[in-house]
Specification:
alpha+beta; 2 helices; 3-stranded antiparallel beta sheet
Length: 133
């Protein structure tokens, strides 16, 4: 599998991991992992598209900025990304209403920098991040 994500065990918060061939694809997978960490995304139906522009920077900085922006938009619009497509300067997100999906876990409130990792392993990029819930 060249692209994917999963939730990792953590005692108090939520920890996610994503992998993909490029930095931006890995960030896109991390966004989907965050949604999967607290919602049953299988039934999500896209109702809008949103663009997230990311400033140039390190993979870690871009990951944190993307996740922070998605958390902010979830709080303000009630929508969560169900698809994330990398673009030249950011991501195109297809979003669904949170209230239309079953909640399965705690809602992320912030990205923490503790044990944040983003590294290239062979031909894959992998990131691991902890979300404060």
């Amino acid at each position: 599998m060249t692209r994917g994500h999963r939730t990792l065990p953590h005692t108090a918060d939520t920890r996610i991991q994503a992998w993909a061939p490029t930095v931006m694809e890995c960030i896109a997978e991390a966004i989907l992992a965050m949604g999967d960490s607290f919602l049953d995304m299988a039934g999500g139906v896209a109702c809008a598209e949103q663009r997230v522009r990311l400033a140039p920077g390190s993979p870690e900085d871009r990951l944190v900025a993307a996740l922070d922006e998605v958390i902010y938009r979830m709080d303000t619009t009630g929508q969560v990304p169900i698809r994330a497509t990398p673009e030249e300067d950011g991501l195109l997100l297809a979003t669904a209403e949170v209230e239309t999906m079953a909640q399965t876990g705690a809602v992320p409130k912030a990205v923490t920098l503790h044990r944040l990792a983003f590294e290239q392993r062979g031909d894959q990029w992998m990131c691991t991040v902890t979300l404060d819930v």
